[in-house]
Amino acid sequence: MIEQPLFYALAVPAVLILGISKGGFGGGLGSLAVPLTALVVSPIQAAAVLLPILCVMDVHGAWVYRGRWDKANLKILMPAALVGLAVGTFTFRYLDARIIRLIIGAIAVGFTIHYWLAGLAAARAARGVDALRGSFWGAVAGFTSFIAHASGPPMSVYLLPQRMHKTRFLATTIILVLFMNYVKLVPYAWLGQFRSENLYTSLVLLPLAPLGMWLGIWLHRVVPEQAFYRVCYLLLFLTGLKLLYDGASEFLSP
Q: What digits encode the pLDDT tens for the residues 182-210?
């Protein structure tokens, strides 16, 4: 089991944010979890520790939002995501921690910039289902999901412009993420990511999963969503900048 106190100081809020996001509040802010924990341990280990916790959350979310997803989008996104997962599986060994930090940092910063710019473009007409765009962003989502559990940004880039009902949007993302996470269990095991240290750490953090999801439901009712978004997206942006700085510094250091 990981014994660094600083790891748990960051992992506890990271898991709670995951639960809050999957509980229906905070959108794609679950992407913050790996960047946060990757400030202490390697991004590879952070992703391995969080995957079993994500799988438990996904089952609960799928039950809560059962039958409300968008089948037309899922028919496009799921096969494309498999392509991205395959690319992630076979390139994972060649991506060292520095590269993964840079990728995660770029995802975090890019997602927040996209979120802020999307607010400026709110008056644009809604887009429909698009097989070409959906296949591209679905594949990107599969890849970013594999390396950092960060499928939220590319999925949002594709799905948010459709302006579907928030419940349908959430249910669609939950089912796609559940699909990807359970597929990932096989290659993660094959790559040796489920060693005892990681699994014991997952078990220690697992009780936070239902608490986080309950908090997501509760926050949805009592906290102004816009205020919550502003704080969390700012934190995601700053965390992304820190990871970009760390990754670049490690490359430049002798």
A: 999 999 999 888 989 999 999 999 999 88
